[in-house]
Design brief:
This protein has one domain: Glutaredoxin, CATH 3.40.30.10. It contains three helices and four strands, in the order E-H-E-H-E-E-H. Strands 2-1-3-4 form a four-stranded mixed sheet. With 88 residues, the chain is α+β, with helices and mostly antiparallel strands.
Length: 88
């Protein structure tokens, strides 16, 4: 299962990003563990200075602004289906 964290203080863009990731995963049958991180110390520990930030399996995938569906799918697909074709 892919672990995804949306980092942000709860602003509208953070909420939209969370919902977008949830929808893209659902539409494509990709299982994720989605978490919203609002604690500023936790957010800063990732080195993210612009929110929303997105962390996929422990790596920063995005910071600042709302990503588009294609970008979100690329994060989830590249994590889910590595080069050895051992898809989840």
């Amino acid at each position: 299962m892919i672990e995804v964290k949306v980092l942000g203080s709860g602003c509208a863009n953070c909420k939209i990003t969370y919902e977008l990731i949830e929808n893209v995963a659902s539409e494509n049958g990709i299982e994720i563990a989605l978490e919203k991180v609002e604690d500023m110390a936790d957010i800063m520990s990732y080195g993210v200075m612009s929110t929303p930030g997105v962390v996929v399996d422990g790596k920063i995938a995005h910071a600042g602004g709302i990503p588009n569906k294609k970008t979100v799918l690329s994060w989830l697909s590249s994590t889910c289906c590595p080069a050895d074709d051992n898809c989840c």
